[in-house]
Amino acid sequence: MGSKIIIRVKDLRAGYGEDIILDHVSFNVYEGEVFVILGGSGCGKSTLLKTIIGLIEPRSGKITIDGDEVSFDDDTTLQKIFRKVGVLYQGAALFGSMTVAENVALPIREYTSLPKESVDVLVKMKLGLVNLEGYENHLPSELSGGMKKRAGLARAMALNPKILFFDEPSAGLDPVTSAELDDLILYLNRSLGTTMVIVTHELQSIFAVAQRIIMLDKRAKGIIAEGNPKYLREHSQNQFVKQFFNRQAEEKGVAGRGSQ
Fold first, then answer.
1. Could you read off the pLDDT of 225-242 as tens digits, one per residue?
2. Sheet holding 19-30, edge to edge
3. Structural domain tally of the chain?
């Protein structure tokens, strides 16, 4: 993990319609870091992710990615930001009528003018990184759940992004396949130096990959803990945080979810 801030979120306010999900949220992500956003159901994890990558316009606040401010009033800068990030969506979001190779090639063809031969070489390289050599001509329906996730990851890496975002990467996977995906995330982080931002609530994955986390809370509409998950499991002064990391049921009458 480097000391350079690659994502800066300051005083963010976000929601849908009249419903404010996140209020006055601020944090930084450092270059090369494996950073996890976690919390209970409905706390705003996916809302925060979508707001950071420019899919949802915030009510107020400021988001900066690698020195560029995310602004819906500046399409040129937004497009520049989109080329710096890759996203693995929860269901992999592969196009069912396209082969694995065609799915991975899609962002390369969209954002570059490389000849077909160069695109084909890049696609094979990306599939090799996620251990899907030889599956170029398969359709998504012919892949297992874990293979679909890896194909989606290959597509997310197509443009050599500085930052990879993952939305519940372990969702729908069995424990062994989930652990294999965790290992792949760590391998890519260490070998490529790519910054990883992961939304999840899977404790095994959190302890396996996260260098630092923020924990969101629905009632607080913001961050109630930040730091190393193993340290927070043992030392957090917030009862709810300790219960979450130790898989304990919430005690009746527990009040206040203040700072860690």
1. 999 999 999 999 898 898
2. 19-30, 5-16, 60-65, 68-69
3. 2
